[in-house]
Amino acid sequence: MDVALRLALAAHVPRAKLGDASEPAVGIPVALALSGGLDSMVLLDALAHWVQTRRDAGECFVPPLAIHVHHGLSEQADDWLAVCEREARLRGFAFAAVRVNVPRNARQGIEGAARAARYEALAATCKTHGVKWLLTAHHANDQAETVLLQMLRGAGLPGVAAMAVEGTLPTTAGNVGEPCQTRLLRPLLDVTRETMRAYAKARSLSWVDDPSNDDRHYLRNALRHDVMPAIAAHVPAYRETLARFARHAAQAQSLLDQLAQTDFEMARSASMSGGERLQRSRLQALDSPRLANLLRYWTARRGLSMPPEARLDEWVRQIRDAQADASLELPHGDAVLRLYRDELQWTAVYGAADSSHLADPSDPDDVVPEVELRWSGQREWPLPQWQGSVMFAPVADGESIEGTIDEQVLRAHPLVAKSRVGGERWRENAAGHSRSLKHWYQSRGVAAWLRHVPIVWQAGEIVFVPRLGIDGAAQRDATTGVRWRMMWRDEA
To answer: Any idea which positions bind ATP (predicted)?
Structure first.
């Protein structure tokens, strides 16, 4: 146990190599996930022993952090938390407990929902405490069970590749905001459950038993209690065999990812519109399996769940069959894969089912209520009804004033945000001709789903149109000399 932990830390955690006296490991930011069960208690004890060994060698450490996630799914959950805190503090660890709410009607089942909530809580706690490495107590039996479980679920190579010693935290944080900076380390993947139990007895460790681990309603438990013992009776080395298969699957997936990266760069659009966009006309040169491989890669790259095979096949068919001027909307979870003007891109799910929809003023249920702002220097005007905000920024000395508005004009009358109803006209500058918003959106390549935005009026005249700018008539000069830019921030 101690050897496995030492080797994993030495190989993966920077400045943690034993015997490296030239650069002592001071304050390694590590934590472990502590459920209170046998596996995590063994890891807690082994890590405490490793830390003490390093301290005895004259190195200085900040205490590792033990993180316990309280799911609230068992009547004994409070008792488990107390055991975890007691055992962690007895060994000189810092301790953090996080309570999460697990939806019992989640689409992925209560087990999947609990796992997702647990990793989100672990990631958030690691970020709060500046933890760079999170250790978990996954072992050889877990690895074998995971490989077989994923095979039965038809998870494909990414699934049967199972768990690596080092990896990323499986969270949704990569979708929005900064990606999680904490790395996941599973130092005991080569250690069997039987070895861990023998270690726990030899060290007289205390742990808690979760009755749900015996519930064969969950497939993993059924495999653990019914299937694995039967396999072991005929193939004693099944753990090593499945682990080897998982390594081969990981190698194959790595090669597929490299191929997908090559295809991704080949198809990447040179558009200046921002974001990751692929040119459909280039993708059509790929055969169906290769295009499917690229789409799986791109989906994972965006931090989205892997699409079912039938959905992926439908994406491939529609993309390959699309005409040059076709538009597509392919919903997937909290995102949409869209084709517009020969470019594929991932976007958020916008509020309107038909984003080119114009409100019907005669139908009260079809119009978003007006919102009024008496502007007095605000930098932000939140408009959640349209999934965005109007931003105001002062023009600095020496900057161009083209497309800006005078402060005196902004203060003269209230600003009113209204839904589009059709027929609105906008001009680029004071001397230009006014044209329909549809004309401007089309000429500037503003996709249909991005047109579900408010129009900002003032005293019966259009002042600002998101994605186009300040109306030319509102750009007229005034006497104050202080001018402002208005911009739309998309928050979908």
So the answer is: 35-40
> Within a 10 A sphere around the Cβ of 397, how many other Cβ atoms?
5
Q: CA 196: distance to chain centroid?
A: 33
For residue 355, what pLDDT is reported? 42
The bridge status of strand 30-33 relative to strand 133-135 is: parallel
Buried b vs exposed e over 1-28: b needs ≥16 C-beta within 10 Å?
A: beebbbebbeeebeebeeeeeeeebeeb
Which residues in the chain land under pLDDT 50? Answer: 16-26, 173-177, 352-356
Question: What is the structure's pLDDT at 12?
Answer: 82
Start-end of H helices in 302-391 = 309-321
Rounded to an integer, what distance in angstroms lies between the CA atom of residue 491 and that of residue 376? 23
CA angle 363, 369, 371 (to 5 degrees): 155
DSSP readout, 373-412? E--SS-SEEEEGGGTEEEEEEEPPTTS--TT-EEHHHHHH
Q: Point out which residues pair with 68 in neighbouring strands.
A: 97
**Which of 439-472 are b and which e, b meaning 16 or more Cβ less than 10 Å from the residue's Cβ?**
ebbeeeebbbbbbbbbbbbbeeebbbbbbbbbbb
pLDDT of the residue at 89: 96
Question: What confidence tens digit (pLDDT) does each residue in 8-66 have?
Answer: 888 888 654 444 444 444 455 799 999 999 999 999 999 999 999 888 888 777 789 99
Q: Measured between alpha carbons, how far is 392 from 390 in angstroms, rounded to an integer? A: 7
Say whether 40 counts as a known binding-site residue: yes
Identify the three-state secondary structure at position 38: helix
269 is in an annotated binding site: no
Tokens standing for 152? 């039965």
Which residues lie closer than 8 Å to 73 by C-beta, 6 or more apart? 102, 110, 114, 212
| Residue 39 in marked binding region | yes
Q: What is the pTM of this model?
A: 0.66
403 is in an annotated binding site: no
Total Cβ atoms within 10 A of residue 273: 12
**Helix, strand, or coil (residue 339):** strand
Burial class (CB in 10 A: 0-12, 13-18, 19+), 142: buried
Report the pLDDT value the prediction gives residue 362, as an integer from 0 to 100.
55
Contacts of 440 (CB under 8 A, 6+ apart): 426, 428, 446, 465, 468
- Based on DSSP, count helices (H) and strands (E) in the chain, helices before strands: 15, 21
Burial readout 63-79 (b: 16 or more C-beta within 10 A, e: otherwise): bbbbbbbbbebeeebee
Answer for the pair 344, 356: CB distance below 8 angstroms, yes or no. no
